[in-house]
Structure formats: structure tokens, C-alpha cells
Amino acid sequence: MSENLAWLTIPDPTCDYGYIAEGDSSLGGDTYTLDLTGHPGGPFKVYLTISYEDACLNQRQVLDSLMLDPEATGSEVPGVTSFKLIQNYPNPFNPNTTINYQIPVDCRVSLKIFDVTGRLVRTLVDKPQERGIHEAIWNGRDNAGRQVASGVYFYRMEARDYIETKRMVLLR
Question: Which of 57, 63, 136, 156 has the fewest CB atoms within 10 Å, counting from its CB?
Fold first, then answer.
């Protein structure tokens, strides 16, 4: 079985990016095939880290792990078998950061930013979404459009019974 991986885009307003595709020479030309012939079946986790430095010397990590289920059918998306909130990148950041998350079924998703006191700073997502891998970009502004101060912030994802919070640092 061949599993299709979603390559996540990494925006940087100061740098020009080309399209990154599986097996692209910008990733060194290496192509990896996952051979599942001897796998006993059922979902399993693949640890995948793609790190690189672009022409603007920005260091990026694209994806840290992926749940795969070769037998996924129906309402499941192959490769997305669990809810997951992925660490934002870059971190620390200024002025923007990207937050990726995955949902294995269609459901309502809430993704909110909080300061260290627990005060809601910004709601990035609060709507029903289709299953799959999603991306939200935070520009360091609150719900009123004002720039927030440097410091530690938390982002929290809620979807069905899944709740997870991660930490990030804004440096101005």
C-alpha cells in the first residue's frame, strides 16, 4: 500500500517559497516508500520529521508524527486516524506562527489563544470542519486586531471529546 502524505505549506512573508512535493529535489531528491506487506494490520504511528533551512535561513519542522491505518474506510481519512494538535512553528515567532492539527472525522473544532493568566486573546477557529489536516495562522493580534505583547501564550484545541493545549512564545 502507498500512503499519501500531505505536505504542509510554511508561509514566510519575507521569503519566496517554491512548491514542495513528495520526492522533490528541494528535499534532496529522496523518496521514501512505506512497505506494509509484513504489517499485522490496524493503525500505527509513523514518526516523520522533515527539517530544512530555506533561502532566508528560516529553519522549519514540517510534521512530527502521523497515525496511519492501512485499513481505514468510510468516514476515516487514510493517514488521519486520531485527533492531534501539532506544535506551532516557528516557535518562538514574530510576527506570525502556523498551527496545524488533524481531525479524523467531520466535527466542530475550536482553536483559541490564551495569555498566561488564562484570558482569551484570540479565537482562530470555531466552526464545523471536514476530517483531515488543517492549518491556522496567528498573526500575534487579539480579537480586536491589536498587537499583543511579547510573552508566553497557550493555544487550545477542542474537538468532540479531544482537548489539548500547547505553549508558544511571541518575541517582538
Answer: 57
Rounded to 5°, angle at Cα 12 from 165 and 55: 125
Residue 124 maps to which CATH number? 2.60.40.1930
Cα dihedral 9, 44, 33, 64 in deg (nearest 10)? 30
Residues 6+ apart with CB under 8 A from 17: 9, 10, 11, 54
pLDDT, position 113: 98
Q: How far is CA 162 from CA 42, 82, 119, 167, in A?
A: 21, 10, 21, 17
| Domain-located, residue 10 | no
Q: What angle do CA 122, 64, 107 make, to 5 degrees?
A: 50
Q: How many CA atoms lie within 13 A of 9 on its CB side?
A: 12
Domain span at residue 52 reads 25-170
- Global pTM value: 0.60
Q: How far apart are CA 98 and CA 17, in angstroms?
A: 15
Given a cut of 50, the residues of the chain with pLDDT beneath it are: 1-13, 15-29, 74-77
